[in-house]
Amino acid sequence: MVDLEAAIGFVVANGDAVDRARLSRLRTGAPVPAGLLDAAEAGQSPDGGWPAVLDGEISSVDATCFRLAELDDLGALGRPAARHALDWLAARQLPDGGWDEDSRLAGLAPEWARPGDPEAHLYLTAYAGFWLTVAGLDARAAGPLDHRVGGAYAGVVQAAAQALAAWLAPDGSWPSFLPAGWLSAAVLHRQAMYDESARIQAVLAERVPTMSPADVAWLAATLRRVEVGEEQWLLVSARRRLAETQRSDGGWESDDGHQFDVHTTLRAIRACRPVVTSAG
Fold first, then answer.
1. Residue 268 burial class via C-beta count within 10 angstroms: exposed 0-12, middle 13-18, buried 19 and up
2. DSSP state of 33
3. pLDDT tens-place string over residues 121-134
4. Measured between alpha carbons, how far is 240 from 232 in angstroms, rounded to an integer?
5. Domain residues of the chain, as ranges?
6. Which of 114, 124, 232, 267 is the most exposed place for a label (fewest CB within 10 A)?
7. Is residue 147 predicted with pLDDT exceeding 70?
8. What distances in angstroms separate CA 273 from CA 7, 41, 135, 181, 267, one per listed residue?
9. What fold does the segment set 48-175 form as a domain?
10. Could you give the CA distance from residue 136 to residue 89 in angstroms, rounded to a whole number?
11. What pLDDT digit, counting tens, does each position of 42-76 carry?
């Protein structure tokens, strides 16, 4: 069983002020001070995205989605910065319903976000589609609000879901990186494309026992965010895997270096915490 109290202690001991505010909101739904929200939004480009590197000039789909995840933990998806970012993502959707990074990022982008790469294209489509899915009803973008799934971005999200379904193999596998699986499953679940989502989830369930802690935490937090029931076998397996990999200091190891261990641990807490209605 995951030791949530130890995980909370790890974040308190090792996180910064924004990390601790994320933790407080995940635990209790407590409002976050405006100054910390401003700090979490720092570095946003004028176009609405966030660059891939500090002081970069070119906004990145991958980096923007990462920042939206942090803002979600802070309850900030309805603030102007997040709305601007979501509008930027929506405007960057390609005719096939997907997303690619700016070609000028070719020399900087990691393999999972490389411009023009088909695997990266699917991953970025699932990532952008996920955040437009969960944030759309809170975003209130310009124009009439659409109350279908995706809210203001319903048409964008539906096009993304159709693209993701088209790339899905009959056995539930997908021609991209592992995270594209759970992000796609979440988008498809919210679009009531339950058969397609379930096929992906079945493949993921087979892989959970060998996944890294960071991947399992991301998977479970993602599916819980779109209200996949925590009694589902995939999420039960994910919690078991997190219990097996929790360190003695209460945290979990990131795949991207120890500087991201707090972020991974916050994801694990989101994945395993009791439901707090006011935390969204």
1. buried
2. P
3. 999 999 999 999 98
4. 13
5. 1-40+211-280, 48-175
6. 232
7. no
8. 11, 25, 21, 23, 10
9. Glycosyltransferase (1.50.10)
10. 12
11. 999 999 999 988 888 899 999 999 999 989 999 99
